[in-house]
């Protein structure tokens, strides 16, 4: 009898553990960019040129990676949701640059930012349209 | 992909003397919504590139699949890795024409016709949209539906009930004059 009990208890325990792990996986949080070390450290010109020279190989190198990029602010805007959008300067050509979409947690830093300022930002690279796009960016140095 | 970039460059470069006809946004919004009895799934992309020509009605829209942000990171992972295969097909595009742009005043309803490419598959679509011109801004907003099956997106049978067969796509593109 007690052996049967042990079996039932273990089976229940395994089922509970399974459900627990499934729920945990289903609710697993997004990666926290601020607390994660960058996969790649570069500057705005280097990042852009990699995409302009060969978009396919740059996609393989940068997509989904946490990229830390240094550059100079050429344009400072607010999105429709009032999040900060920083366009980095491309001093070689007017076509194409790096655009950093800041995470809403960074909104209060707007007061410390101005056009022409050198900054370092860290964010997730989602690819290249006319510009290289980094999302969920945090400011590393302002 | 080279071909699509060429079209964008073309729309930007052609008729440099009539530059006041071209309008652009790099911060357009596209969201999609899937409703099923099991769960609702919503994703939002705030980095949409759209270029339009108010004279000819040409419009070209390009989005990065990885820029779609989901509430749950697992959904975003499945979307990119299993369904739209973002590593293979990093962009979705729409190349089309606003048909009755000439007959419009400052606001109105337009019919946009063109090719929508998702997951490497192109289909002709027709979309009704609201257009509003004010100062140097031309806004186009609308909603349309796409069938998942039309774009060869395979949903595993385990989660078949979690994902709708028809996905509702909303867009809001506030173009500014390009100069």
User: What is the general shape of chain B?
Assistant: elongated
The structure class of chain B reads mainly beta
Tell me, what's the shape of chain A?
elongated
Q: Write the CATH homologous superfamily of chain B.
A: Lipid/polyisoprenoid-binding, YceI-like
CATH architecture of chain B: Beta Barrel
Shape-level CATH architecture of the largest domain in chain A: Beta Barrel
Class by helix and strand content of chain A?
alpha/beta
Number of domains of chain A: 2
Offer a concise description of the structure.
With 142 residues, chain A is α/β, with parallel strands linked by helices.
Overview of the structural elements:
The complex is a heterodimer of chains A (142) and B (179). Chain A has helices spanning 2-26, 44-53, 55-62, and strands at residues 40-43, 66-78, 84-88, 98-102, 118-128, 132-141. The model of chain A has no long low-confidence stretch (mean pLDDT 92). With 142 residues, chain A is α/β, with parallel strands linked by helices. In chain A, strands 2-3-4-6-5 form a five-stranded mixed β-barrel. The N and C termini of chain A lie far apart (69 Å). Helices cover 30% and strands 34% of the residues of chain A. Chain B has a single domain, classed as Lipid/polyisoprenoid-binding, YceI-like (Lipocalin), CATH 2.40.128. Helices cover 13% and strands 53% of the residues of chain B. Chain B has an eight-stranded antiparallel β-barrel. In chain B, a hairpin with a 2-residue loop joins strand 7 (121-134) and strand 8 (137-147). Chain B is elongated, with a radius of gyration of 17 Å. Chains A and B meet through helix 3, strand 5 and strand 6 of A and strand 1, strand 2, strand 3 and helix 2 of B.
